[in-house]
Each structure stands twice: as structure tokens, then as C-alpha cells.
Amino acid sequence: MTMKKLLYILVIFISALGIAQNNSIFEVGKEQYKNGKFQEAINSWIQILDNDQESASLYFNIGNAHYKLNNIGPSVYYYEKALQLDPNDSDIKTNLTFAENARIDAIESLPKTVFKKWYQAVSGIFTFNGWAIATVVFVLLFVALFLIYYFSISERKKRLLFVASLLSIVFLFISCVMAFKTFGDFKNNSPAIIFAETAEVKSEPNLGSDSAFTLHEGTKVQIIAEETNWVRIELADGKDGWIPVGDLKKL
User: φ and ψ at 172, to 5 degrees?
Assistant: First the structure.
């Protein structure tokens, strides 16, 4: 047996041990949670995150434990993390709604234009990877349709194939645009959750500047700029300002 194979087997063995250990810690945390030892359960589950292992179930349970302790900021944060990994889970969505309802800040989103609603509906069909794959599929479809059209003898089939190839080009263009657009949205998307009980939002990135408004734990914000120990955040209602980086946690 070669050294390369031995190393490969060793890696698999160590990975299996790590998974088994994490499963054991997860079960310990569940027992602690059932016994009302919520902080102990959190401490157990955080060990799994420290081992570079994550899952929607793990984040969901940590969120539940924080919610039981009335830690609104951390509970919203971990529910959001769970939702990132499993965006269609109804239990995560329900518990996130409960946690959000416990927040102090009630922020109304800016009204959306018809185009914005249309874009969100269409862009949500796939991720940017999905749109990129769709682009490749439509390229192959166009090539196949064009070749069949070129070698076809029937005039009727030629007309149908020509129209179909034109439609494939249209969908190719749309999917290509959506791939680039959704990738840009992904790159620019930098959400965070306020962890400080109270966070003063400043007009400039320094403590001596005027306070623009105040936020409380659990509020979701969008990071739009960073400067040393400060981040510029924007709310769903369009307000923005600067807060110390320690007052929030990036998702």
C-alpha cells in the first residue's frame, strides 16, 4: 500500500472520528436543553461550531436555547444562520418570526416598485450558480436547434426550429443577465444582526459625531462600508449611519 493511500485512509478515519464526536456532543446538548440547562446546551453546541462543523439543525437548536434565555440578538442571528442553510424550513421561519416579534425596533421596509417586485420574483427562482447553469443549457439548446434547423429539409420544421432557436437566444440572454446580476447581489449582500443591547448609530465613524438614531439587539441591518473599527449600516427603511463593529455580528 502506497503512502498516498495510507494518508487518504488516515484522513477518512480522522474525519469519521470527528463526526462521531460532534454527534455525541450534539446529543449531550439536546439532553441539557431538555433539562432546562439552556446555557450549558449552547456551550456544548458551540464546541461543534469550533470544530468547523455547521448545519441548519445545529444553528436552529442554538437559536432555540438563546430564545429560551431571552437573548433576542443571538436567537435572531442563529435562526438566520439556519435559514441560510435551509431556506425552506417552516420551523426555522416560524421561530425566527417569534424572535423578531420580540425585538424593540419595528422597521418598515421601503415600498417596492413593480420592477423591483418582478426582479425579486424572477431572481429568486435560482441562485447565481443556477442561472449560470441555465445559461449553459440554453447555449447548448440553441446550438442543437440551429444544427437541426440547418440540416432539416422540411420548410415547416425549419420555421418552427428557427422560432425555437430565437426563443432559446432570448432565454439565453435573460439567464446570462440574471447570472451576472444575482452574483452582484450576492457579492454586495452583507447582512448582520445587532448584538449590543443598545447601539447608537453615528453620522460619522467616530464617537464624537452626532447620534443619528438608536438600534436595539436583534435588528437586522445591511453593512455597506467598513472603516477600521466602524461599519456603515443601512436599514430596510433607507436610514444609514455608523456603529462600532463590536455592536453587531455578520451573518
Answer: -60, -45
Question: Residue type for 175, please?
Answer: S
Q: Residues 207-223: pLDDT tens digits?
A: 888 888 899 999 999 99
Where do the domains of the chain lie? 14-101, 114-188, 191-250
Distances (CA, A) of 39 to 42, 62, 99, 155, 246: 5, 9, 18, 74, 22
CB 63 within 8 A of CB 75: yes
Residue 248 phi, psi (nearest 5): -140, 170
Residues 6 or more apart from 246 whose CB is under 8 A from it? 196, 229
**CATH architecture designation of domain 14-101:** Alpha Horseshoe (1.25)
Residues 30, 32, 34, CA angle at the centre, nearest 5°?
70
pLDDT in tens, 181-201: 998 888 888 999 999 889 999
Amino acid identity, position 240: D
Residue where the block lists cell 420580540 = 102
pLDDT tens digits, one per residue of 12-67: 544 444 455 677 788 888 888 999 999 999 999 998 888 888 889 999 999 999 99
Task: Give the global pTM.
Answer: 0.74
Asked whether the beta carbons of 93 and 79 are under 8 A apart, the reply is: no
CB 245 within 8 A of CB 231: yes
Please tell me what DSSP assigns to residue 109: P
CATH 2.60.40.1120 fits 191-250, yes or no: no
Going by C-alpha positions, the residue among 232, 194, 196, 242 that lies closest to residue 76 is 194
Mean pLDDT of 129-147: 91
Residue 42 in 3-state DSSP?
helix
